[in-house]
Amino acid sequence: MSLWGFMRVSQRLSLYPSLARSFGTSLWGSGRSVGQASTLFGWDLGHRHFRNEVIKDSTGKAKGKGKGRGIISITKAAADEMLQLLEEHSSSSPEANVLGIRIGVNSSGCSGLTYTMGYAEEVGDDDTVVEEHGVRVVVESAAEVFLVGTEIDHVSDELCSEFVFRNPNAKESCGCGQSFSV
């Protein structure tokens, strides 16, 4: 068993507040600070990584453009984690009007694009709403072209808890898996 076990970042920081500065890029991801994570999601979501997996065919080349598939699909594991995050957020911020999880893409990282994830408080006219396994996910309209056919999963082990984006549009990913290019 590890020293940290399955403690959330908020629990770790309440025990050891001096650790806050060291969490900067190691737990949140390259180019983002813990302050940004806590602003966007609160500490309980800030410790999760986003990892991109480039889907390759038998020849080792990146596969297709996701044609003939929906914008995104969500695994049961990802939906369960999202529902837990929404429940925790609702109980800690009862005044918030959260409709679901918002997914997007930003220009950032060494490969050019990174995934964004936050709480959706509104749905834009051009946004797409996907509901699977009881969770509502709002896909930002500008991100749709990059996300067509993407499967969102959630994996955990004793060292890490992360959302994994299996994106058929991604041609390559950086070494840490935090960013991708199409």
From TrEMBL:
It comes from the Eukaryota. GO terms for molecular function: 2 iron, 2 sulfur cluster binding. Pfam families: Fe-S_biosyn (PF01521). GO terms for cellular component: mitochondrion. Signal peptide: none annotated. SUPFAM superfamilies: HesB-like domain. Residues 72-177 form the Core domain. GO terms for biological process: iron-sulfur cluster assembly. Belongs to the HesB/IscA family. This is IscA1. It comes from Stygiella incarcerata. The gene is ISCA1.
